[in-house]
Amino acid sequence: MIDHISLKVADYARSKAFYTTALAPLGYRPVMEFGDGCGFGPEGKPMFWIHAGEATTPIHLAFGSPDRKTVDAFHGAAIEAGARDNGAPGLRPHYHPNYYGAFVFDPDGHNIEAVCHRPHRPE
After folding, report:
1. pTM assigned to the model
2. Contacts of 8 (CB under 8 A, 6+ apart)
C-alpha cells in the first residue's frame, strides 16, 4: 500500500492554491509545510505532497472518493481553481459498472482524477 506520493511543481504558490481548493471536497487539507513543500491529507496525515522544482513528466493520479456527489464537488472545485477539464463527472462502465470519475489537468498538466467505485445510493 502506498503511504504518500510527491510531485514537483513549476509554480509552488499556484499549485498550492490549486490543490487547496481542488482537494477540499475530498477532505484533503494542507497539513504540513516545509518552505517549498506542502503535504495534503485527511485527518492531519500528509499523503500527497507538492514541492517546488522543475515539473515532472505529467502523470495520472487518482484520489478515492466516498461517493459520487464528492466526485462532482471535486470537479467543480478544480475547475474553479483553474484546472482544464479532462472528463466531466460520470460513469465509465468500460472500467466497471460502478466506476464514477472526473478528470482535470492541474497547472503542470498532470491528469488528476477523483473516483468512486461504489454503487449510486440516492439520498
Report:
1. 0.93
2. 50, 51, 52, 53, 54, 55, 56
Q: Is the pLDDT at 1 greater than 80, yes or no? A: no
Q: What is residue 49's three-state secondary structure?
A: strand
Cβ of 24: how many Cβ atoms within 10 Å?
A: 16
Q: Which phi-psi region, left, alpha or beta, contains residue 25 (left: φ > 0; alpha: ψ -120 to 50)?
A: alpha
- Amino acid identity of 38? C
Q: Where are the domains of the chain?
A: 5-116
Digit-coded pLDDT (tens) for 54-84: 877 899 999 999 999 999 999 999 999 999 9
φ and ψ at 52, to 5 degrees? -65, 140
Report which secondary-structure segment, H or E, holds 91.
Answer: strand 84-91
Task: Give every strand in the sheet of 5-9, ordered side by side.
Answer: 5-9, 48-52, 37-41, 29-34
Beta-bridge partner residues of 38? 33, 50
CATH code linked to domain 5-116: 3.10.180.10
